[in-house]
Write a structure and sequence with these properties.
single chain; alpha/beta; 6 helices; 5 strands
Length: about 140
Protein backbone atom coordinates (compact mmCIF):
# COMPACT_ATOMS: atom_id res chain seq x y z
CA UNK A 1 0.00 0.00 0.00
CA UNK A 2 2.85 2.38 0.82
CA UNK A 3 4.19 2.07 -2.74
CA UNK A 4 0.74 2.93 -4.08
CA UNK A 5 0.73 6.22 -2.18
CA UNK A 6 4.35 7.23 -2.79
CA UNK A 7 3.67 8.58 -6.28
CA UNK A 8 0.60 10.54 -5.22
CA UNK A 9 0.61 14.20 -4.36
CA UNK A 10 -0.61 14.86 -0.80
CA UNK A 11 -4.34 15.51 -0.73
CA UNK A 12 -5.57 18.71 0.84
CA UNK A 13 -8.48 18.83 3.25
CA UNK A 14 -9.93 22.11 4.40
CA UNK A 15 -11.06 21.90 8.02
CA UNK A 16 -13.15 24.49 9.83
CA UNK A 17 -12.71 24.48 13.62
CA UNK A 18 -15.61 26.19 15.40
CA UNK A 19 -14.39 26.62 18.98
CA UNK A 20 -14.50 29.68 21.24
CA UNK A 21 -11.83 28.56 23.73
CA UNK A 22 -8.52 29.41 22.08
CA UNK A 23 -6.45 26.66 23.74
CA UNK A 24 -9.00 24.01 22.73
CA UNK A 25 -9.16 25.39 19.19
CA UNK A 26 -5.37 25.14 18.95
CA UNK A 27 -5.52 21.60 20.37
CA UNK A 28 -8.01 20.60 17.67
CA UNK A 29 -5.82 22.21 15.02
CA UNK A 30 -2.73 20.35 16.27
CA UNK A 31 -4.61 17.03 16.24
CA UNK A 32 -5.76 17.61 12.68
CA UNK A 33 -2.30 18.59 11.48
CA UNK A 34 -0.73 15.50 13.10
CA UNK A 35 -2.68 12.96 11.04
CA UNK A 36 -0.06 11.98 8.44
CA UNK A 37 2.02 13.25 5.57
CA UNK A 38 -0.34 12.01 2.86
CA UNK A 39 -3.03 14.50 3.88
CA UNK A 40 -2.34 18.20 4.01
CA UNK A 41 -4.89 19.82 6.30
CA UNK A 42 -5.59 23.53 5.98
CA UNK A 43 -7.25 24.68 9.22
CA UNK A 44 -9.33 27.80 9.82
CA UNK A 45 -10.57 28.66 13.32
CA UNK A 46 -13.68 30.70 14.11
CA UNK A 47 -15.31 31.36 17.48
CA UNK A 48 -19.04 31.60 16.72
CA UNK A 49 -21.69 29.73 14.78
CA UNK A 50 -22.51 32.92 12.90
CA UNK A 51 -18.91 33.17 11.65
CA UNK A 52 -18.99 29.50 10.67
CA UNK A 53 -22.23 29.85 8.71
CA UNK A 54 -20.67 32.55 6.55
CA UNK A 55 -17.87 30.26 5.31
CA UNK A 56 -18.88 26.65 6.02
CA UNK A 57 -19.35 25.62 2.38
CA UNK A 58 -15.67 26.37 1.68
CA UNK A 59 -14.59 23.45 3.89
CA UNK A 60 -14.46 19.66 3.66
CA UNK A 61 -14.92 18.84 7.34
CA UNK A 62 -16.11 20.76 10.41
CA UNK A 63 -14.81 20.35 13.95
CA UNK A 64 -17.59 21.75 16.12
CA UNK A 65 -17.81 22.72 19.78
CA UNK A 66 -21.38 22.48 21.04
CA UNK A 67 -21.24 25.43 23.45
CA UNK A 68 -20.51 28.67 21.64
CA UNK A 69 -21.20 32.32 22.46
CA UNK A 70 -24.15 32.38 20.05
CA UNK A 71 -25.46 28.81 20.39
CA UNK A 72 -25.57 26.06 22.98
CA UNK A 73 -25.73 22.28 23.20
CA UNK A 74 -27.30 20.12 20.54
CA UNK A 75 -29.06 23.23 19.14
CA UNK A 76 -25.60 24.11 17.79
CA UNK A 77 -25.37 20.78 16.02
CA UNK A 78 -28.94 20.96 14.68
CA UNK A 79 -28.30 24.46 13.33
CA UNK A 80 -25.08 23.39 11.62
CA UNK A 81 -26.71 20.26 10.17
CA UNK A 82 -29.53 22.40 8.71
CA UNK A 83 -26.91 24.61 7.09
CA UNK A 84 -24.66 21.90 5.62
CA UNK A 85 -24.30 18.16 5.05
CA UNK A 86 -20.51 18.35 5.40
CA UNK A 87 -18.91 15.81 7.76
CA UNK A 88 -18.84 17.03 11.37
CA UNK A 89 -16.58 16.06 14.24
CA UNK A 90 -18.00 17.14 17.58
CA UNK A 91 -15.28 18.42 19.87
CA UNK A 92 -16.90 17.55 23.21
CA UNK A 93 -15.94 18.03 26.85
CA UNK A 94 -17.87 14.91 27.86
CA UNK A 95 -17.67 11.34 26.64
CA UNK A 96 -20.86 10.47 24.80
CA UNK A 97 -22.57 7.15 25.43
CA UNK A 98 -22.47 4.47 22.74
CA UNK A 99 -26.10 4.98 21.71
CA UNK A 100 -25.61 8.72 21.18
CA UNK A 101 -22.36 8.14 19.26
CA UNK A 102 -24.10 5.64 16.98
CA UNK A 103 -27.06 7.98 16.40
CA UNK A 104 -24.61 10.71 15.43
CA UNK A 105 -22.52 8.39 13.24
CA UNK A 106 -25.45 7.48 11.00
CA UNK A 107 -25.85 11.22 10.34
CA UNK A 108 -22.19 11.59 9.30
CA UNK A 109 -21.11 12.99 12.66
CA UNK A 110 -18.28 11.71 14.88
CA UNK A 111 -17.45 12.78 18.42
CA UNK A 112 -13.97 13.47 19.79
CA UNK A 113 -13.45 14.01 23.51
CA UNK A 114 -11.29 17.09 24.13
CA UNK A 115 -9.31 15.22 26.80
CA UNK A 116 -8.19 12.53 24.32
CA UNK A 117 -4.58 13.32 23.35
CA UNK A 118 -4.89 11.83 19.86
CA UNK A 119 -7.39 11.08 17.17
CA UNK A 120 -8.65 7.50 17.15
CA UNK A 121 -8.19 5.53 13.94
CA UNK A 122 -11.91 5.87 13.20
CA UNK A 123 -11.51 9.66 13.16
CA UNK A 124 -8.58 9.43 10.78
CA UNK A 125 -10.65 7.16 8.51
CA UNK A 126 -13.58 9.58 8.81
CA UNK A 127 -11.47 12.58 7.83
CA UNK A 128 -9.81 10.62 5.03
CA UNK A 129 -13.21 9.70 3.62
CA UNK A 130 -13.99 13.38 3.06
CA UNK A 131 -11.32 13.89 0.40
CA UNK A 132 -11.95 13.26 -3.28
CA UNK A 133 -11.04 9.82 -4.55
CA UNK A 134 -7.42 9.38 -5.53
CA UNK A 135 -6.55 8.38 -9.07
CA UNK A 136 -4.25 5.38 -9.05
CA UNK A 137 -1.45 5.65 -11.61
Amino acid sequence: MKELLEDQEPLEIRALVVEDTRTLALQAEALLRSINSFLTIDVTIVETLTEAFAIVEDFDVIVLDLNLPDSEGFDTLRSMRKRTRKPIILHTTEELDTRTRLALAVQGIRAHHKGDPGLPETMIDFIGSTVPRVRVK
